[in-house]
Amino acid sequence: MDMRSRLNAALKEAMKSKEATRLSTLRLINAAIKDRDIALRSEGREDGVSDEEILGILGRMVKQRQESARAYEEAGRLELAEGERAEIGVIEEFLPRQMDEAEIAEAVEAAIAETGAGSIRDMGKVMGALKAKYAGRMDFAKAGKLVKEKLG
Known about the structure:
With 152 residues, the chain is mainly alpha-helical. It has helices at residues 3-17, 20-42, 51-74, 78-92, 101-115, 123-134, 140-151.
């Protein structure tokens, strides 16, 4: 089942079971995907967002909510931070298992070897290869630090 079908099935299920947080989060996900679809149509791509691009969208949504939750905690707004964490939980249901530190390091090594990167100037090539292969499964901020360490 493709990502859109999974999301739509989950949306229908959330409507039936009247889960407010889950329903609103799934609607936000669908809105983000539709926004990207519209942007792609204006660029001449009629096929819409691929599953890999949906994983990227979901990854960005998780990252945004993590930052918001941190900001709310620092401001003492724990109820808002909990709301953000609840949304993260719903979004992560649709993401593949996240890679741990060792797996990220291994993937960085492989991408450096694969692209033939030899200096920090090749960082863009390495990151591009990682993003193409591990969208939605890798924390690219951590990967970027590792790439800098290896090439720098």
